[in-house]
Protein 1
Amino acid sequence: MKKIILTILLGLLCLFLKVKTQQQYTTISGKITDQKGIPIPGSTIKIKDEKTNALANTKGEFNIVSKNQTGTLQISFLGYKSTEIAFNRGKIGPFNIILIEQQSQLKEVEIVSTGYQTLPKERSTGSFTQPIKEAFDARVSTDLLSRLKGITSGLVFNANTGNTVNGRTDLNIRGRSTINANDQPLIVVDNFPYSGDISNINPNDVETVTILKDAAASSIWGVRAGNGVIVITTKKGRINQSLKISLNSNITVSAKQNLNYNPNFLPSSTYIEVEKFLYDKGKYNATLSDIISYPAISPAVEIMANGGKLTSADSTSQINRLKTIDVRAANQNLFYREPIIWQHQLNLSGGSEQLSYYLSAGYDKNLQTVKYNDNDRLTISTTNTYRPFKKLELSTGIYLTKSLTNKDNTLAILTGNQQLNYPYLSYQDKNGNPIPITRNYRNSYVSTAPSKGFLDWNYIPLNEPNTTTNQSNAMDTRLFAGLNYQLIDGLNLDLKYQYQKTSTESQIQYGIDSYTTRNMINQYSILTNGKVTGHNIPLGDVLSSQNASLNAYNLRAQLGYQKKLGKHDISLLSGYEISESKGSSIGSTLYGYNENTGAFKDVNSNTIYALNPSGDSFIPSGTSVNGTIERLRSVYAIGSYAYNQKYTLTASARMDGSNYFGVEANQKSVPLWSAGIKWNISQEKFYQLSWLPRLSLSATFGYNGNLDRSTTGVTVFNTVNNARFTGLNYAEITSFGNPELRWEKSSQTKFGIEFSLIDQILSGNIDYYLKKGTDLIGTTTLAPSSGVSTFRGNFAEMKGRGLDISLNSNNLKGKFNWRSYLLFSHVTDKVTKYDLTAASNQILNADGYNGKSIVPIVGRPVFSVFSQPWAGLDGQTGDPKGYLSGTISKDYAALNNAKPSDLIYNGPGRPTISGNLTNAFDYKDFSLILNISYKFGYYFRVASVNYSLLYGNSLIPNQDYQNRWQKPGDEQYTHVPSSIYPSNTARDNFYANSVIHVDKADHIRLNDISLSYTFKKARLHQLPFENLQIYGYLNNFGILWKSTNSKLDPDFVPQITTTTISPTPRSFSLGLKLTL
Amino acid sequence: MKKQHKLKIIKSVTMLYLIPILILATQLSCKKNWLEAKPSKSLIVPNSLNDYQQILDNTNIFNNGLAALSEINADNYYTTYANWQSSGSAVERNSYTWAKDLFAGETVCPDWTNAYRNILYANIIIEGLTKIDAIPANEKEYNSIRGGALFHRAHNLYNLAQLFCPPYHDQNASNQAGLPIRTNAKVNEPVIRANLKTTYDQITSDLSNASALLPETQPYLTRPSKNAAYAMLARVNLAIGNYKKALKYADLSLQLNHQLLEFSSLNQTANFPFTLFNKEVIFHCAAGTYLILSGVRFNVDTTLYHSYDGNDLRKTCYYKLSGTEIKFKGSYVGNNSFFSGLAVDEMLLIRAECQARANNTIAAMSDLNTLLKTRWKTENGISTFIDKNAANAGDALAMILTERRKELPFRELRWTDLRRLNQMPAHATTLTRLLNGISYSLPPNDSRYTLPIPPNEITSSGIEQNQR
């Protein structure tokens, strides 16, 4: 194709030459290369003030004929800095012309998208940020959001939150803007908020990501923009682009989880010591004597309790054998593997004068680190734009994602169940055969089960994965249609419609051989005179299914007007949009299911049955129906005016209405607006700084909104099945209404500077901003005598401010290129109004970590780390000591109720300084990118031994137990208090909250390194393709420096009850990108 | 020609796009109530009688897990040092030893929190009903729901008063601190402690109102009936020493139900001889659970166990021997949790006691004998019980109180009985417990008969704490 075009062009050129040579003409020739000497074919050569054009051939060479004898050649190529060369009769070449690549020069014509419009960054006043493009492109991942980590200014990835613990990302744009409402940014994909799971988007289909950070940028998204907006645009074809095919394929291999990282563990020998201690104290007396419910007893205690029957030598040797076991090794070998991810994507794009298209297919397969857990994803998308004539543009898009997930929960049950979490578990006998372990009942009960007619009641973990299938199938369909029509010159009508349907079908089939099914059948078996005489739950598999679907549509009608009148640039936009997102889910459970015939049996879920060995219960019906609707109706307008490219004014306004529940109609709609101004100083005549050719200042102000959908204006309840004792349907009150509920409002004021030094040696921008949240949803803790412990309303206010600096530098240019990107964000927040004064014990417990409540304190960040002053251990008893109004005290009840002012404020619980340094190097066709990120200015709390939990219902260990105070003098080298029994919760709380457990979380991390080599046709002409890139990528390299002496990674801090947290292991990817 | 053709295509394509969009826009957005749609199916604003009945049918909160600290403080049981040490919370352990500092740094107490939650639920129902018109067609249902809510409000307030208020004395009830009383659903309205008299007045007036509204029978024993309101009034009036009224209401209750279980017909060897909703039950309710009082951890007081006659079937229906330990199995819930509802046997004993106190020895003994006859072994279908006789009313009262103790253990009644009987020197008891060689005792009328209010209540609302 290209060849043909070229031949035609050359032919035309020849014709041209032939005709023109009859006059006095000058022929100029030359060769165009980049800095490395690589030819740039297709570069445009123009002669100034003439209509003559020429293109460089594949070797970068050109000939051009001028009708004048002197003149100026203008050479340009997209992505390179244009250059001019004077010629005259004596100087007609051949010239060696070197075009300089414009790495960051591209930014000047950078187009940003708000989801409502695309506009040149130059003409916008708002803060728009895009991730560092080359680092973003070099990353390998199957999900999009994690690619933004550490390369996007102002976007912080939080750690240790409820989201991250569950494997999702937890983001903040410019810090936190709310206390209790939704705190995650709005994600917009191709102009509309994305309703499904963002992991359905294949990152290889993504063209650009833009973060809307200030009000001028994001306010147009109204009530949903309170936490900022992430605008994602997928790839499209371009008009007049020849067919481009590219293939990307890679494989990622990771290390196994480090199971030894988690400190909430005691080695078997110590664990058994603890059990022995408790046994001697009689802790297990009640459990051991329970011959009604036969509660599970750990193997070691079982041996101790059998003391009378075994010889003591026997039991000692049995105990000693247990002491040598480390369950982590067994878990590592039997349940973990090195995860592997394959990722392939093929896309085609191109366009003619009237049509452009993009077609892509992707397939990912992910074998997760825990065996029997995997998922694959197929993504297919196509977008077409049709421009039948100049005034009309029609576009369509179809996006399909299909994914299949296989799960196996065996390991999760073993490690998540504190009652099963013995460090001396073993799953195999000497010969490697799977063996049973104690789960719900004592062995003495389980072993007699078959003789009574029960199904085998043993729990054999290694047999479990084969007996249960747990699969979910998800399908995400997104259809898009758009129309853009130019009504009159400058006035456009734009209509957009999107429909999205996501459906997830999950099925868990517990086979008859699975423990879950056998246990259920046995529990509900009818026992007459000690023998099973019938089954209330029929023999067969248990099939539990859940179908969830989401139907969403968005519709937008928009009028845009753009006009340039001399020095005046006017752009106006107004529109109307509605959206609806409907979710529904239906669940059911079938008993006695036979996979081959599809047969199942009915059970009676409305009767209480006696359970074996004790208790009574309904048969869980597993039936559930749920439905949600979110509706939003908005009108909006955006306007901008620029004068002479020097001054820009922007404004936006939006009015939203939603079906926010139970709120009075007049409070359902909320007007939000923004305004901004920009001054390009460098365009002024008086501006003289030639070393700083670009400088502009901007200021913006505006409002965003937010809401908390779980808070309602009226008291509401939901209906639940099977009330205790009666089996009736009953109601639970889910929310105590507050009729005065309003939307949250947050304002942001921003001052920005953008600059660029000569030749882009250094360029960047600096933003300083102030945020203010009003009408924030606050939780008031009410006295329990009110009947409700918490009550929500618009009680709170907060303030925040920060600084975002982003600098790009070209350190070295030439054969060896070195570019640096430095991002720096400083953000602080402060609660300024909160009706409630929290008690000390609440304050101490609120540090932003997973599962902990938010307890705002006026004058402090939303997440603050507080602690108790520490006076060491008592030398005689090993008791922890604190300070009560200045004097040393061991009155733990009083210490826990100390005045909040007596607590130590350590600092914020979330980073106040964060950013990264990315360095990119090129040498010839090699390219290397290194990303280092840092987080500073925050604190974390380390868990230590808690005797109430260690000696409680289940034994919750922490390795600090081994360093506990045991005899006078120990206080010299340990701060772990002595063990007391029964434990004292107040003493444990005081110790857990003392200042010795708070540490600085500051750290620097090497995120990733990517290295690539590209074979370019431009250099190797015999190549049958345009480009072939081979790349390697090392991710999650690890911590380079941390402030704490603790072994913990501050981004992976386990709470005392968590045994499964450890840092994400390193991974390595190898792949290729082929472009035809 | 070609151009025209092209235009045609464009036109039709444009239409294809435009029409559905415009239809949708007009269809969906202009509806006035488009934004009124309920955001979640599960969100229901209660506004019908059926909705309120469903709230009332939340047996998980109204009929289960209620006040249990009284049993821990009372003397029906003992526990071993090992089991005491391994009990869940300091509140349990300190209740056992009647320690002055009950909470020892702990702040929350489910007995308090749950009772007030139930009171709020009741108030939501009572308030919500005011927005529904009572018409003849729904009057019965309406009254039943309103009566049920009033009953629960009183029931929970009464339970709280047994723990957190001093024992009732007519003379100084107006000067003693009662409870915070909430009669509306305004959760953020501050409330202080009313005096003790007002507290009990609230309880009795709610119950009287409930008794007028409630139907005589309900399809489920978890729903309060007229009889439940009478029985509760009898219980409350007995607690505050208003024997006349206690007699009146026990009598009204027994007129509605006086069926007694024949213990000889029960399976005495069963793990749990009594079944849920047996015919003596007037109102079903199960007490909350604390680890110290879980089935395997506590033993029945030996003196109590040995006080039963050889022919008294309560000894085998209520208790079993596990080795040398005596275990309780006599709950009317039919499992390990204690029954704290209302039953006919309690009503008979209240009526008997009040008759004795009113000097009606014969009537008193008649009630007592009626009850005991059903508790005794039978021979050839005839009870082996021989009617007891009392020399005088005082003798009768003593006998009735003894049988009350033996009939109603682990019903969450003993603590209140101790509190009220300690005011009569003849029936006052000093409680003692032995733990790890240390003896703890609770003399009659000690200030520790009133529990301190949970610290989280004191910090949040600043109400007056009890002196202990």
Protein 2
Amino acid sequence: MSKTNNKWIGERTIRPDGADKVTGRASFAADTTMPGMVWGSVLRSPHPHANIVNIDTTKAASLPGVKAIVTSKDIVDFPLDTPAPLGIQDMRWMTRNIMAREKVLFHGHPVAAVAATSEEIATEACKLIEVTYEILPWVIELEEAIKPEAPILHNTIEFEGKPSNIAGTLEHKKGDVDAGFLKADTVIERSFTTRPVHQGYIEPHACLVSVAADGKATIWSSSQGQFMVRAMTSMLTGIQQSDIRAIPAEIGGGFGGKTIVYLEPIATVLAQKSGHPVKMVMSREDVMRATGPTSGSMSKVKIGAKKDGTIISVQGTFYLQAGCLPGSPIRGAAGCAFAPYNIPNVHSQGYDVVSNRSKVAAYRAPGAPIGAYAVESVLDEIAEAVGIDPLELRLKNAAREGTKTAHGPVYPRIGFAETLEAAIEHPHNKVTLGNFQGRGVASGFWFNAGGESSAQVNITEDGNVVVTTGHPDVGGSRASIANITAELLGIDYQRVSVLIGDTATIGYSNLTGGSRVLFASGIAVTNSTEKVIKTLRERAAIIWDIDPDAVIWEEGEARPAGPNAGMFEPLKLEELADRATETGGPIGAGAQLNTTGAEGGFATHMCDVEVDIELGIVRILRYTSFQDVGRAVHPSYVEGQMQGGVAQGIGWALNEEYIYNKDGIVDNPGFLDYRMPVCSDLPMLDTVMIEVPNPKHPQGVRGVGEVPLVPPLAAIRNAIYNALGIRFYSLPMSPPVVLEALEISQAAE
Amino acid sequence: MTNIQYLAPTTLDEAVNLYAAAAGSARILAGGTDLLVQLRSGMINPGIIVNVKKIKELNSIEQRADGSFIVGASVSGAQLAKHSSFGKTWPGVLEALNLIGSTQVQGRASLGGNLCNGSPAGDSIPALIAAEATLNIQGPNGNRQLAVKDVLSGPGRTNLSQDEIAVNFSFPPRPVGSGDAYLRMIPRTEMDIAVVGCGVNLTLENNICTSATVGLGAVAPVVLKVEAAAEALVGNKIEEESLERAAEACRAVCNPIDDKRGTIAYRTKVAGVLLKRAATIASQRAEGA
Amino acid sequence: MAKMHVSTNINGEPEEFLCEPNETMLDVLRDRLNLTGSKEGCGSGDCGACSIMLDDTLVCSCLMLGAEAEGANIKTIEGMADGLTLHPLQQKFLETAALQCGICTPGMLVAAKALLDENPEPTETEVRFWLAGNLCRCTGYDKIVRAVLDTAEEIRGKAQ
């Protein structure tokens, strides 16, 4: 699809859901109410690790206003010895995550829940539930958790024949790294650590569940996937999927953290037991203590290069914290870390480590930022050792079409090299820097994904269009879908309405995540719209009594073509809609597909910092990100993804971290001391969208949402090196850390 | 279900009587930016909340003929910033108050609330101490004054008795050639609790410092008045040598804790850095005054 | 204590409600008055998603008791548009994609309007520091700040 011919693709249209969002009318999960609604509250573990000996709910049950109480007895069990996969999750862990079973595994772990006529009463009732614990020794930090003497969280998990906190491992190999290192002129090996960080969505998890007298459940929730909500709730409550209707409310941020359930199954059982709709809303503190952040990590990366800058051998070992149950994103760390480059010898290994903190959940390119932080930092050191500009080093070794990756695929046409070339040429790269200012660069990759998507495109009787898709909209995808539909039909954008269906009103659609929504729904919508266009041509053919092959669809109307060209006046969409019944019936079509062809996302970032060397404070002066976006169907929302990821990366690099006290309890469970960037912390975040269309997508779309979080950690770290001559090997690079390093370095001089 | 009471008296006497009658179970609601957070977290469980924002003495700003100011304890940062001359006379006190929290918090937060909440990191307190402000207090037995430096008795605790209310602050008249400034160190640019806060107030005559007061916060159980730092400045020009000695005096009095906001070592270093910077600004303002 | 009876004015209309003494204004707006446009992101005054105007002053409604609304003029996001005519800030946010998930948007708009009402010609720095109490996790603030600056210019242009 040629850029220059597009009317709507590439246009900055106004999103269809926007008016409600700017007037406060948009309905998020916590905004929903129902008559007879009661409130649910969760009792959480006061211990980081303990066996549950007994739970006595009698006192709580007799508090006036209490309508139901739930413990793990009311949730379906999945025995620890039998894997129970659902997508990338395992229900053995999910059931224990939403409510502790044999033991509590982190401070804040749900132990029971109460539904009552007010939030206050529900909370009060929770305090009356008496739980007898047998306290166990606990471990949180990675380094401690992998030691042989560490307290073991799960006796059923073994590594190398013994019970262990190492719950899994993953490996990618290509070539022979040891032989490769021998051939290298420069070899640099470094170790890195990162602290766990939270996705930081502003909207806490919330849901409202109503169970009817016939047992059918309706769930409104803040989630990245209503089909996931339905499936998990079904598995955890035993209600069959066709009796659960999961409706996605507008979602106030997710970034991966809402790709699993916390409240919905509990609220469903409370609704069953109480006979009332049950609303549950997490507090910010609950979110920080008990929902999945991403992993802290320990990594070691070794890179060998020839003196002309060719990277010949790379090795990476990545330990990631899973939290209390297995499932850290080692796939992202080990798979993406070296993926931007064409390297003959690669060995990358990930280790999934459990410890007594909340189970991690996906966070924007899960695992990849951790891997890239280490690799892109060492690349900077290689560039210096070899005497090559860091961008030129990356360009020299850039993966291109035909590069075979260590994680498996061979790349088709990709635009990574273009991001490097754009960075090299960009005016940002020429800005003169002052004292204690520095510039850093880094690149990154994320897999992206395709997966299942369903869509329905229906023509209204008055000749306009209603599109229903299946993925919650986190970043403006409805606008992009409308752009695509308007473009394909050749009609004005305003005539297209885009809605997100629920599990009852649209076909199966996989999660919003993996940078896949526009990719996958774009294919499903294109497929549906093309079927609609075919129908419209057929209807015109019936009216004109000619062969449908002799009808074309252009600019919103059917036109006779070929031998019949010019013989009939074109029939507009409105006219065909008006005559739908007489020509065969309603006009509409749908698609339910498993989409493939999603190719990875690549980006290069350039960052300038300034350091207050007396206080150790790092400020971002300017930031430009360069990304191959395939095709920017709606440029504003693509830019938005790039800018959002950068902002999260800045927070992760400089100030965000989970702080634990000596009792294994999160000490900063709120926005005051979990320090995310505020408006005054950031400069404008410039973006350069490079469009190398994805050959496997009808509009050339590549997923864009996740790769923006992959490069910033190293870009900032490299910029600080350029400013101060100090290399940091741990995150966050917060003021006390920077100041101490400055003093050590000054003392050494 | 709740037993808590809310009252909004319109006179000071009414407020004092209510507060005293509650025998320690009442809490003052000025801006509520600390109170409501503590209520929600369960940190406090008062029987009565007394809203003092309808009481004239706590909510007015008065400039007297001799140049002194009386500022109500419950006047918000936003209100104080709008006053036509307070900020020109006491830019350091105003900027200290205005640094607390966000614009939204500024719409409510007050000098009285910040002081009586008793956090050693309270932003306004080092500047109030440097200004040598006095707190006027009212109890059932009459009124009394306390220098701000004598109000705090420990983290979260004040020397007000359980039946006394803070009414307003008296700021002394400013000699010509005076300037004050407040700086704090926070990791972000806004929204953080001060890791260290430093208020400096000084008077210059012919470029020589003739008087100085230094307040230092978040480095000890209470906000400190650092006499030795002031002494290092008085009688000298404000330049590197005197500033370094004053900075050293600040570092020497630091007795902070290690917590999620800062380490002992870091806070101590920063105290010296902020002293120098705040004193420099105060001195520039004094030259212009 | 029994519930308090409060008489106030919300978005230009007289309003009455009952509330517990320790109930916040945010809880009153959302749970008693069905004005769910103001959001709870943190409940502790650190995110600004609950921003409202209290007698022409920008405040967090989670840091204010419902009882304090007695006799006051409250303005929420629901009162920003004039019927179906959006305020220029709301329109600009839509046109320039200054929102993604939209959860921070009501608070951000109320705060931005308060800025422009007080300072019709803010600099970028002034906008950023004014909005520091409104957390956004989606946008990185870039398009929000541009939208506020552009709207300010537009409003000044119309005024001339």
Protein 3
Amino acid sequence: MANIISDETIEYVGILAKLELSSDEKEQAKKDMGRMLDYIDKLNELDTDGVEPMSHIFPVNNVFREDEVQNGDGREITLANAPERKEDGFVVPKTIV
Amino acid sequence: MKQYETVIGLEVHVELATKTKIFCSCPTEFGGAPNSHTCPVCTGMPGSLPVLNKKVVEYAVAVGLATNCHITRNCKFDRKNYFYPDNPQNYQISQLYYPICRDGGIGISTEDGGTKTIRIHEIHMEEDAGKLVHDEWGENSLIDFNRSGVPLIEIVSEPDMRSADEVIAYLDKLRLIIQYLGASDCKLQEGSMRADVNLSVREAGTEEFGTRTEMKNLNSFKAITRAVEAERERQIDIIESGGKVVQETRRWDDNKEYSYAMRSKEDAQDYRYFPEPDLAPVVISDEWLAKIKAAQPEFRDEKLKRYKEEYKIPEYDAQIITEDKHLADIFEETTAICNNPKKVSNWLMVETMRLMKESGIEPGGLKFSPENLAKLIDLAETRKINSQTAKEVFEKVFYDNIDPVKYVKENGLETVSDNGALRETIKKVIEANPQPVEDYHNGKKKALGFLTGQIMKEMKGKADPAMANEILKELL
């Protein structure tokens, strides 16, 4: 494995991903991430000099919508996905606003 | 003590005045029941696809042109990744690599009477987040996604401001430009314009920037001024006592007039931007750009100049009237009808302002038509009604946009131009008040005022005081 993930890196990625990992899980994650990076490194074997970075898979642009209201009251559909609902709001753990 | 210079740059978020959200056709209208203005797109449901609102691009380009920016003819969106409950997708669609506008700047007036350019680094389009409400009866927070996906532009300045006054001047200039474009109502208190202040201090005369902090939650010009002063002092205190300013985001509490650091190490900021694959690039053609350019309104500075030259109204009047585009529009349209700019300006500056203050109505909420104001001015100028009546009729115009000509006729408010009737009344008043008449003949000028008052009373206010005065003198 060419890519070695350090303890600091896995700690940092854990914070960013809001994940708490046990030390066993951390070791496993380090290996997995290293292997993923090795795989991605394959792309570096290609010569991409002078190739425009691609941001969209189809050669299209200017896909627009006119500024007209089409959606009605979406409350019920939206809140149907709420793990917990109170009146018309999603309930989430207390945040300091 | 050493002299310090404050260095300030601003990030200004402006909510655009579109009818619908940036990537879906949910309404942006304020005040609906929580989550009533939502759909799978603006709540980040898997499999939903965003489609860009064309009007957002047009507003962003219009603001860019008005602030002398280069328009990025081929621009793209990127994802900014972070976890917070108000952000349903776990990323915000924004622009990092190819923002729509770059390298602009606007001129501001400085305290010493000079002018100065504040450079604009970039303007980009992005979506707003939802709103978190603390549940008073529980240990939870509630989310309302109505604001999620409301279009924003973020205007990022260069660190070109040196004082709170310059910050206010810059914000005010931006506000006027954007309001004139109709791109937003720019209300700090209501959050449709939000300013984050990046501030650092450095020893006067040095070139190198100090470490900056970012201040959030500034909801008024006063709060901004206080926060700038307080943060400058705080940083100078740290440096003077041998410490180092930490680069961090701070939240201003305007009631307590102090700020505190918002994020800890556990909330490391690393947004891992990458190109948004769900949105196609935006290409702004020459034709489209020309069309937006052609639709730009006359802005405040140009209006100010023209008002003084073309309408010959005083600088002060022109300043006040052009402070708001709605007011300026009423002024110009009324003047076009009655061709009396000074009178129109007077009615706007005195009576309109008085009633606006009294009723709390803002310029955007003014209901009366230029036609009716012009008619009223005409009635007053041709002395068909006297000045007191004119003020009373104007109140009706102001609140209910009545037709003053019709109203005056229906309520019999015309001044009596029939000389005979007025003459008769004056004769009666003279007969009924021998003492004041004698006083007048003995040189007491005050008596004339009393007699005129009596005449006006008899005429129920419908006489032209100047005319009554003339006849009175003649008959005496």
